[in-house]
Specification:
The structure is a homotetramer. By secondary structure, chain A is α/β, with parallel strands linked by helices. Chain A contains seven helices and ten strands.
Chain lengths: ~240, ~240, ~240, ~240
Amino acid sequence: MKVTVWNENRHEKKNPIVSEIYPKGIHGQIAYFLEEAGLDTKTATLDEPEHGLTDEVLNETEVLIWWGHLAHDEVTEEVAEKVKQRVLDGMGLIVLHSGHFSKVFKKLMGTGCDLKWREADDKERIWVADPTHPITEGIGEYIDLEKEEMYGEHFDIPAPDELIFISWFEGGEVFRSGATFKRGRGKIFYFRPGHETYPTYHNKEIQKVITNGVKWAANTNTPNPVRGNHQPLEKITEK
Amino acid sequence: MKVTVWNENRHEKKNPIVSEIYPKGIHGQIAYFLEEAGLDTKTATLDEPEHGLTDEVLNETEVLIWWGHLAHDEVTEEVAEKVKQRVLDGMGLIVLHSGHFSKVFKKLMGTGCDLKWREADDKERIWVADPTHPITEGIGEYIDLEKEEMYGEHFDIPAPDELIFISWFEGGEVFRSGATFKRGRGKIFYFRPGHETYPTYHNKEIQKVITNGVKWAANTNTPNPVRGNHQPLEKITEK
Amino acid sequence: MKVTVWNENRHEKKNPIVSEIYPKGIHGQIAYFLEEAGLDTKTATLDEPEHGLTDEVLNETEVLIWWGHLAHDEVTEEVAEKVKQRVLDGMGLIVLHSGHFSKVFKKLMGTGCDLKWREADDKERIWVADPTHPITEGIGEYIDLEKEEMYGEHFDIPAPDELIFISWFEGGEVFRSGATFKRGRGKIFYFRPGHETYPTYHNKEIQKVITNGVKWAANTNTPNPVRGNHQPLEKITEK
Amino acid sequence: MKVTVWNENRHEKKNPIVSEIYPKGIHGQIAYFLEEAGLDTKTATLDEPEHGLTDEVLNETEVLIWWGHLAHDEVTEEVAEKVKQRVLDGMGLIVLHSGHFSKVFKKLMGTGCDLKWREADDKERIWVADPTHPITEGIGEYIDLEKEEMYGEHFDIPAPDELIFISWFEGGEVFRSGATFKRGRGKIFYFRPGHETYPTYHNKEIQKVITNGVKWAANTNTPNPVRGNHQPLEKITEK
């Protein structure tokens, strides 16, 4: 399975705390553990030509992971539309953390995708809400993160097709932190954790969830419907 | 309750078959039966300034009905965005028939919204799939339409929050012809029937469904969430 | 609208703390605020003949509220089946708090309906997860309860048709505390709060949610499908 | 993966048309194509001791397939309850055709599960409604069955978690003929086709869907939640 990890890669250049946690960038760290799990993984970043998401890259990508925050507006309309279209055509998409506000996610959701947030070292506890889902394979009843950014309800998304995780935050909020959506022929998994100043993507359970998400999101040769003018399959009586 | 019926009003000007069926326009006919049902109804059309959807009109509209077909591209991006935003802010939206391909619906769905179609005088039978829903109030088990345009699956929409009607077509297709979606603080009802060359909006049962849909879609003083930076409601321990 | 509030009414007889908070019983208090809201309300309790739920009572009840805890097993199989059948036939049902383990709710859900719990004076904060829903009318973004019994995930229910509220608990858990389900022709609202030793049903916001729930759950003359052997509506070709 | 195909195996003994189509029984035919697809498959039938579903068999079964019709009432309450419990504990379940009225399915759904039906050689066309789902892998846009029993709406089930197929019938009806449900830790797939007097389970596409369904329904080491009295994970303040 071919995976592309996209990252805006800006915090890493500006903030030494981030580059210390992620010396190869957030994308490098995610690619690292996906490779370890046996997935064929490449990376792409904002400042590459076409943000690293050329037609060639997109066409061979089976699942795309998206991390962005500071520079959502710098992603060109053209690339955002192309990524959206590839999802509708069957590419899986994993949107992480602040990617909730990316052009791609907002276009696919149709809503504002806003939420409450706070950077205050909240403890986060991510509870499993759907113990049948392959995304929860190998996970316990919850995942504890000692410090994370808080995201709180109301999260302005459509009701998810499946609600996988609900987060508890020390400061008193809750959040639907793992949710799946189907759009067109593509599958989308939003997963909340991963603020840049915490070592969240070094956490083995978080890695397991993302790896499970990639496997779940890949398309498996499902039908590709034809649309438009359609000849009748049965005789239509004259009226 | 204040309702605005929007119609592109072009078929009525070009095609005498349509203007004979709907001498006051499709919008005029829909407004007529909604008024009969006791709803405070206005109309707006594409060729009016701002397509008749000024800020003032949109702000006082509780439920908007949308019929468009030939001229989706002539709806300005600005008006389409404003209507979308008003839905997210709580205005109800009823999208009829070929409105599936309107800018407003596509923006709110995030998908292509395409489908199979055929103009061949198919008989359509609209079956109730959810006999708990207020949109089906006063309706029987199905509604028969002697002649209609066919719309067939796969309809490229997100899985609806509620599937209300499924259509059977004489030529061999099926269609999810009544579906609800919640987006932001707004409620959306897509209802399939209403090709311009058939007298569908003169049908009493179709009128009843649309009237029910308007009543269901109106917002009832539900919470208006605040988003953004959020102070903790509980003490956060130092770490 | 005719409402019946059912309560097992045992804690009130055994525990002076409960009878002090609810001198007319939990059922009496719920009936009181529903009457204040203009609803025609009666009560029924476990120790009455047929648990107060005779055919006559059930047939004229449009929405039934259920509170039980200690004596789920004393509800006869016959009455539980009759209540279930009435829900499938169109009666609305509001299941409160420990009613999650009632025979009626378990039969309608098809799952174990178990959960985590703790009686330790947790603070509960009930967040609105669906700001479009009429059940949230007139409520703010959350409801705070200073002390309540904790219920925690995983709550063993089917994925709700609509997730209305998510609770945060001081001790570190979350819970899907407001959820709707449609079964047959009936609508069901499960609402978590209401441990007997706390004055939860004196809280005005909790009262508002329950009142909203009753109004939402009432059937509105929707279709009553016929099932069984069915004559063809179209000609079937010989093969 | 270990699969058990359960069949009441009565039509095969009574009706030479059926035994000619399925000389090894419906169970034998289903087991045959699952074995061909590489799945480790056994069979069990009504007239075996404990209906062939001993604790040993159930405990090692990862996915159970259910076909029954004439003799739903002869399935003991004890076995039906055990099968239900195994599903809640994580065993996958595929319910075929007239299995909609089995004790096991009705217990898991909580509804009446009734529908319209007709034995009149209707043509059936099964349309794909969810082209993202692994159950549709390798299938086209629809499956045609020249002759089948008709099942029509309203099908009295809870709204499915996922609607995979919708059937068109020549006599004028539609049916939600492929639907998934999650209950407890188990996954359920209902698939409509398979009347005993037609060679439906010899159809390669039908075989493919059932095989896909078995693979989808198997549990993949997801969490097994603990419920009951729960110690706080965070300090609760005294009040």
